[in-house]
Amino acid sequence: MTFTFRTLDPLKDAELLHRWVTHPKAAFWMMQDAKLEDVERAYMEIAADEHHHALLGLKDGEPAFLMEKYDPAHRELVGLYEPLPGDVGMHFLTPPTDTPVHGFTRSVITAVMAHLFEDPAVQRVVVEPDIANKAVHALNEAVGFVPSHEIQKPEKKALLSFCTREQFLLATGVAA
């Protein structure tokens, strides 16, 4: 599967995002009770933040998933681990569907990682999924992430994991 990326438009894309993040499938996104205005506000804050960026992944020009990248030295993980130069944090969300495509989510995380590693400054991707999110732990492992340790964030207990460019290449065979 081939995906492209575009910067998320917090107002234009808010209704779509609202459907995605409030769906029961997105429970770990922690926006289940969000109103449309809450989603607009959250993504307007991201759009204004030099250390946090939201992108839509597109398949055939249509929105297919959400990706966020952030600088862990300034957002999400400040004080929870010692960031290295070249670290980038990442979140991704695949939307609910009535017609699941086998391998879609793995294709998405592979594309997200390849996109992040297109930037030569990125040396390592950092993730902090909820400790209970076993499905994403398996996906992370499939693309080369190695769990480090549990951390306590304000909103959740998380599994801090890292993936270097080399680990991604070894796990996927995708040149980054």
Outline type: globular
Low-confidence stretches: none
> How many H/I helices?
5
Order of helices and strands: EHHEEEHEHEEH
Q: What's the pLDDT, averaged over the residues? A: 93
The level of helicity is 25-40%
| Order of adjacent strands in the largest pleated sheet | 1-2-3-4-5-7-6
First-to-last CA distance = 16 Å
Determine the strand fraction and express it as a percent band.
25-35%
Counting DSSP E segments of at least 2 residues, the number of strands comes to 7
Q: Using only CA atoms, what is the Rg?
A: 15 Å
Structural class: alpha+beta
Largest sheet: 7 strands, mixed
Descriptive notes:
This protein is α+β, with helices and mostly antiparallel strands. The protein contains five helices and seven strands. A seven-stranded mixed beta sheet has the order 1-2-3-4-5-7-6, sandwiched between helices. The radius of gyration is 15 Å and the shape is globular. The two termini are 16 Å apart. The mean pLDDT is 93.
Keyword list:
single chain; 176 residues; alpha+beta; seven-stranded mixed beta sheet; globular
Question: Which helices and strands occur, and which strands form pairs?
Answer:
Elements: E1 4-7, H1 14-22, H2 36-47, E2 52-59, E3 62-70, E4 87-93, H3 104-117, E5 124-127, H4 134-142, E6 146-152, E7 157-164, H5 165-172
Parallel strand pairs: 4-5
Antiparallel strand pairs: 1-2, 2-3, 3-4, 5-7, 6-7
Helix pairs in contact: 1-2
